[in-house]
Design a protein that fits this description.
10 helices; 221 residues; mainly alpha
Length: 221
């Protein structure tokens, strides 16, 4: 994927994860987190959360319930990398922790999956509570504030809607009029070419981006 009005290029298939997590281990850990989040009173422990598990899960969670064009689903991992890049495009002053927050904005979905907005509305507060508990644990694990500042939330939502507009028109069969109604029109002159990648490639790209930001944050403190 490339954002044409910036020099940012996302993904050419050349990045590879340094450690491929065992799928059974990932599934067992994710299932345990679901059980803890839903049925245990104490919060989910941040120590249980690993970058590799998040990347493995998000690379296999499909946006649009998998109803998209192409040989591969467009994953939440790909979506998240693009949203982070869009946030930087919209506000080049973003610090490293704000960029990591944007990259992790959908990270709870590695446990609970992606759910279309109408279903989230039907489930109401229970879904939001589970999502918030996971998000707080993920933020604690990576040294981020439990509560995302309102201004950063708005920026991430704007980037999220821009990405969703291009996903809708290029991959999900929406025309531009429909996409404008649901997501708003992207800024003039901004264009993204989307290419759904295989899960292993999306996983490697997401892992590499998280690790890059974490290493830079460590150096800066």
């Amino acid at each position: 994927c490339a954002i044409s009005s910036t020099s940012i290029s996302i993904g050419d298939g050349s990045i590879r994860s340094r450690r491929r997590p065992d799928s059974i281990r990932c599934q067992t850990r994710a299932a345990g987190l679901v059980a803890e989040t839903l049925f245990v009173m104490p919060p989910v422990y941040a120590i249980d959360i690993e970058v590799e598990d998040i990347a493995h899960g998000l690379a296999r969670v499909a946006r649009w319930n998998g109803q998209t064009r192409g040989d591969h689903a467009f994953s939440v991992a790909q979506h998240s990398v693009i949203v982070e890049a869009l946030c930087v495009h919209l506000d080049a002053r973003l610090d490293l922790k704000a960029r990591l927050t944007a990259l992790l904005h959908d990270a709870p979905e590695y446990v609970i999956g992606d759910m279309i907005s109408p279903f989230k509305a039907v489930l109401g507060g229970d879904y939001k509570d589970v999502e918030a508990r996971l998000s707080h644990a993920i933020h604690a694990r990576f040294g981020l504030p439990a509560q995302t500042p309102a201004s950063l939330k708005r920026l991430i939502k704007k980037a999220d809607n821009i990405c969703a507009w291009f996903e809708a028109t290029q991959l999900a069969g929406f025309d531009e009029v429909e996409s404008d109604r649901f997501f708003g029109r992207p800024p003039k002159g901004l264009h993204i070419d989307l290419k759904p990648e295989a899960a292993q490639i999306a996983q490697a790209q997401y892992t590499a981006r998280v690790e890059d930001l974490l290493s830079k944050i460590k150096v800066s403190v």
